[in-house]
Backbone:
């Protein structure tokens, strides 16, 4: 049963907290998903850093005053805290919210690899939430957007035939880098078409009519952080430190929705394939480089702001109310 049904709305209430800068498009997406899914909250607070405190924001026919995240008592009476403000903010204020009894659903990478913190995609790992209860203070990690989109399709296949090796190439949209980057892509497109030098404030590379490696920092092993998130988070999701995962993450000049090419090698032959997930799955074909039907190529696409962040976080919150 959907938590937006009248039965739940009238009997269950949750006080929700949103920690993030108001310029972050993901926060507005969180609010939109709350409305679309008719999430049954009793009261709502909006928090941000001191620079945004005092601002007014209209939501669902009411106007809210943004409160200072660092103010004393900021987490008093909070049941569910949805964080979308970056790792440093989550690491600083997440434990404070937990100490006041809140369940923190965190969109950053701060706690994803903590063995004590569940990493959750509700459709594929609901069992990870088994020990999380309202009123008992806990942190739940929202995975990286690319990992969510990939594993929505790959996990059912892994459970069916066990993935031994996964090769992922991502084609990541501009919205993953924020609202300012989206505006710069619009500006660059116009400038390039007019024969002007493109403005480059967000990325060093030209974005319009170009593709380049994801802008995450490159590590000592030659992979960037975005690629290693895919590797580490997949192993944690599948509870398999030996599964072989490699990724190449690329920025492409589109506004919304990440796409991913995924190659899977299985322990046993496949006898069927299902693509009935919220993430779109296509180009399903056997890997001709492997024998005995033990390989598969698929192409997946999903909205990294919605399912890759906001929707997944709200779905986690909904699980707490069941």
Residues:
């Amino acid at each position: 049963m959907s938590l937006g049904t009248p039965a739940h709305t009238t009997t269950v209430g949750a006080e929700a907290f949103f920690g993030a800068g108001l310029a972050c498009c993901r926060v507005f997406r969180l609010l939109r998903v709350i409305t679309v899914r008719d999430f049954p909250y009793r009261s709502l607070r909006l928090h941000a850093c001191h620079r945004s405190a005092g601002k007014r924001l209209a939501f669902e026919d009411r106007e809210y005053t943004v409160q200072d995240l660092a103010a004393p008592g900021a987490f008093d009476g909070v049941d569910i805290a949805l964080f979308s403000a970056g790792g440093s903010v989550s690491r600083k204020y997440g434990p404070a919210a937990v100490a006041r009894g809140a369940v923190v659903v965190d969109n950053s990478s701060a706690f994803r690899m903590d063995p004590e913190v569940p990493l959750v995609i509700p459709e594929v790992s609901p069992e990870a939430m088994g020990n999380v209860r309202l009123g008992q203070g806990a942190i739940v990690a929202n995975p990286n957007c690319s990992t969510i989109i990939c594993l929505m399709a790959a996990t059912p296949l892994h459970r069916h035939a066990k993935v031994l090796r996964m090769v992922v190439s991502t084609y990541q949209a501009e919205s993953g880098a924020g609202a300012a980057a989206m505006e710069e892509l619009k500006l660059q497109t116009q400038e390039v078409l007019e024969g002007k030098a493109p403005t480059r404030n967000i990325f060093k590379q030209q974005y319009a009519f170009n593709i380049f490696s994801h802008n995450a920092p490159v590590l000592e092993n030659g992979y960037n952080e975005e690629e290693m998130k895919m590797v580490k988070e997949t192993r944690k999701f599948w509870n398999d430190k030996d599964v072989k995962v490699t990724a190449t993450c690329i920025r492409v000049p589109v506004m919304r929705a990440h796409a991913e090419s995924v190659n899977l090698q299985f322990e046993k032959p496949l006898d069927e394939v299902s693509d009935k997930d919220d993430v779109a799955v296509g180009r399903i074909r056997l890997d001709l480089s492997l024998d005995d039907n033990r390989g598969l190529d698929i192409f997946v696409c999903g909205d990294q702001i919605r399912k890759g962040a906001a929707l997944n976080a709200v779905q986690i919150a909904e699980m707490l109310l069941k």
